[in-house]
Amino acid sequence: MKSHFGAYGKLIHDHANGIDDRKVEPPAAAKSISRETTFSRDTRDIAMVQATLRYLSERVGSELRQKEKQARCIALKLRYADFTTITRQQTLFQPADTDQTIFATGWQLLKNELPRSKQAVRLVGIGVSNLVEAGRQSDMLDAKGQRLEQLNATVDHIRKKYGFTAIQTGRTLQLRDIFPESNDGYSLHTPSLSR
Description:
This protein is an alpha+beta fold. The chain has a single domain (43-134, 142-186), classed as DNA polymerase, Y-family, little finger domain (Dna Ligase, domain 1, 2-Layer Sandwich). Helices cover 36% and strands 27% of the residues. The chain has five helices and six strands. It has helices at 2-5, 7-16, 46-66, 99-113, 143-162; strands at residues 32-43, 69-80, 85-96, 121-133, 181-182, 185-186. Strands 1-4-2-3 form a four-stranded antiparallel β-sheet, covered by helices on one side. Strands 5-6 form a two-stranded antiparallel sheet.
């Protein structure tokens, strides 16, 4: 190996044989969380794209709260039938971790993009970044925000106990007619569901 690849050849040989003197370090903390899926067929069905975006937003929100983080930035990823891929993002005024905020921001970004293209959608994704520790100072005047936080905590508890699809929002109900359910959520037919 060394004669063919030089010093790097020895390193390849050592790693292939389990020899590595580097210090073992835990993985770094996540800097972003995202979910996306490619549709089995390109679609112009905006209701299905919206339902999928809502479901993906709920998955991202759940993971965000599980990691006890909040996001300052929300990003939408969209791929069209011709494989043109766009990403749009929006920085939030205040960090958030609620499904509703993630979805509402992603939906607004999506609504702004769809009229620009006459093509069918191949992939949709939502992500959050610029993560900060959860726990902001409560705003006495923001009763709606407090209710959303309590609602999400309750939904997370139910989903943890009975499975992710045990409780669903109205927008995601149409997905059960398209994708098979399991305790861990919908099984999207393509292998491209990613984190």
